[in-house]
Specification:
Number of strands: 10
Strand content: 15-25%
Largest sheet: 8 strands, antiparallel
Strand order of the largest sheet: 5-6-8-7-9-4-3-10
Distance between the termini: 85 Å
Length: 377
């Protein structure tokens, strides 16, 4: 690389806080190859180097200048704290607050600590959870679904928890049956021949126990359960690196099934914590509506962690509820997990996102109310 004998200013930026940026200027003298070092060149010629040469010179100079520790050190400033509290980091251009949990905050608690909240601060005691929802008048619980959850990595001593859900099978039988299928045998919308060898393609029913978990978390508001990617879940189930080009995901349920589910009555509003909610057209019709078939079941059902009246206007229907105090405590714990900020943890500026600690479904068991009552006697 041939460099001029002229002096080149190299600017290094040291981020001190979200509101303070200091600019360090270093002047370096570098010599060109002898054949280009002509003393007869006038100052105008020397100062008219192309932008490309200036860039090359700056890069070379920067590579030989040692970086101080302060040049890469980040600190949490009051502006970040304030915008996080107000939820307007992106609008104010406070990237520390907008980008996410691990951007450089030193005062945030360890996300694996059960007492660590979504705001990055330690609680004094574990959350007790909201009160168990009251059963609406005239509504009966027909089935109890027990979901065993794993929080964090099992290899590092992650937490576990159980949520018991009671389903309103008498009030909305088609919706409840779809929920039961999703939790047990799986939802199959393609031909059964696609499950057999030699058909030319491979597929599998989509069910919550195969790669299911919390795909999106709205801190202290609601939990979104589903299968983020059918192909990824299938590959893990078969212990493959990837599903392959022959894999065909299950599509959304047919219009015939949608017609039945969409006509079922609205049992109650989303006015308390602990309510099980599905899209009004049924499981498979959540999300943005622009998701591919592979991601169609990414937002299959939600559980409220507080009253969320806005969900009544999102074309959703309550089909069940949390059954006991222990489950409400687990619900509160999971709802308070820190999140990967932004849309699917990528685009900053949003409060919701995938949980920072992965929450997966370990196992599911289903009992009818009659068999559950007999077992308890």
């Amino acid at each position: 690389l041939f460099l001029s004998s002229s002096h080149v200013a190299v600017f290094g930026f040291s981020m001190i806080s979200p509101k303070r940026v200091t600019m360090q200027t270093t002047t370096t003298s570098l010599s060109m190859h002898p054949e280009h070092n002509n003393n007869n060149d006038n100052d105008n010629t020397s100062s008219s180097m192309s932008r490309r040469n200036v860039l090359f010179t700056a890069v070379a100079a920067a590579s030989i200048i040692p970086q101080s520790a302060s040049a890469v050190e980040r600190a949490v400033g009051s502006a970040e704290i304030a915008c996080r509290e107000n939820g307007n980091c992106l609008e104010l251009g406070e990237w520390d607050g907008a980008v996410g949990w691990t951007w450089g905050g030193k005062d945030r608690c360890d996300a694996t600590d059960p007492l660590c909240g979504a705001d990055g601060k330690l609680r004094d005691a574990p959350l007790a959870g909201e009160a168990v929802p009251r059963l609406p008048e005239g509504v009966e619980i027909t089935n109890v679904v027990t979901i065993d959850l794993s929080i964090g990595k099992k290899t590092t001593g992650g937490e576990t928890g159980t949520i018991n859900l009671g389903l309103y099978g008498s009030a909305c039988p088609a919706s409840v049956q779809q929920m039961l299928d999703f939790c047990t045998k799986g939802i199959l919308t393609s031909s059964k021949l696609m499950l057999e060898e030699g058909y030319g393609v491979i597929s599998a029913p989509v069910k919550l126990t195969e790669g299911g978990g919390i795909t999106m978390l709205y801190p202290n508001k609601r939990l979104d359960f589903g299968i983020a990617s059918q192909s990824v879940s299938y590959a893990k189930m078969k212990r493959l690196n990837k599903a392959g080009e022959d894999f065909v995901p299950q599509t959304r349920p047919t219009s015939k099934e949608v017609d039945v589910i969409s006509k079922e009555p609205v049992v109650r509003k989303h006015d308390v914590a602990g309510l099980l909610s599905i899209p009004s057209n049924g499981i498979g019709y959540g999300g943005s509506g622009l998701d591919s078939d592979d991601e169609a079941y990414g937002s299959s059902f939600q559980i409220t962690a507080a009253a969320v009246p806005g969900m009544d206007n999102e074309k959703r229907r309550v089909i069940g509820q949390v059954m006991d105090e222990e489950s409400m405590a687990v619900l509160a714990r999971v709802a308070s997990l820190p999140t990967k900020k932004g849309l699917k943890g990528v685009i900053p500026g949003q409060n919701a996102g995938p949980p920072l600690l992965r929450v997966t479904v370990n196992d599911i068991s289903v009992k009818s109310v009659a068999s559950a009552a007999a077992a308890s006697e």
